[in-house]
Amino acid sequence: MRACTPAQINDPDLDGSNAINKGLRRARNLLIEINRMGVPAATEYLDTISPQFVADLVSWASVGPRAANSQLL
Length: 73
Fold this sequence. Notes:
The chain has helices spanning 6-10, 20-36, 51-54, 65-68; strands spanning 42-45, 60-63. With 73 residues, it is an alpha+beta fold.
């Protein structure tokens, strides 16, 4: 089951506002709640920026193909 999609971080209100700070805050809050329940969280990192904001709450992660091809890695 996918709880949070990239669009929910990049445009959390799905209205074109691109309120990324709001999306990252929502993603962190969701992951905090999942961690409080004792359930490990997994994700796929699709870019090289957002992982730094959620990595402390993720138990397992894979690197998406676009991020793997990035010159920043």
